[in-house]
Sequence to fold (266 residues):
Amino acid sequence: MRTPDIVRFSPVATFVLALASLISLSGFLWPFFYSGQSLPRTQIFFWIAVSISFLLVIIQISNSLLDAKSVALLGVLSALIAALRPLGAGAVGIEPMWFILILSARVFGPSFGFLLGLTSMFVSALLTGGLGPWLGYQIFAAAWIGMAAGFIPGKKVRGKSEIALLIIFGVIAAEAFGLLMDLQFWPWALGGDTQLSYLASGAVSENLYRFIIFHFATSMAWDIPRAIFTAALLALSGTSVLSALRRTHTRAAFMAPIEFSERAKA
Fold:
């Protein structure tokens, strides 16, 4: 049986989400379409998008589309993910946060997954001092991965088949995160004198070729361990964590009205 999404986006919130994603997507892809000679300040794109996305959360709460129990769960899971992220100490891509994000989005839906990726990455940056021009990229990469995890097909699939499906997604997500992070780093990484450098006003095909070679030459030492570690955590703890999250979903009765009753006197 399909588990319903505990966050329902209104038409206004959906528009806000689409606008923020479009702005942030332009911040990722500008190297392939930018025709200027000087590098733009792309972090402006992301802080605009992040501001719009937090406006989305406010809209959801003010319109009662994100109830108190959903907000509490979002806060608890965001804090858990933020606490897990530094445990890998940044060593060769070992980041234990992703399996919780993927499993939570699987149970609670794509809208909740987007908000969880957004808030957990921001809280993690506050806890670890990871504030910088890269943060906007990290926030939206995590938010998109959370949303994509909620859209994984086969909602009726359970057991080993479901874990295998989530492992495949975890490996793809680990590579996608590394790819997106390289997009924010590559134009400034090598200067302009190497065969892999970003070419201002260069052809799309030429810059795309240079970026792909740069990514596979520099990031596999991070992406492969991230994928293996995430897959291992999903394989070892996926079943028990999914069961706990599904019990939470059932017992919490999200979006149901809270009723108070007086105990009858004997």
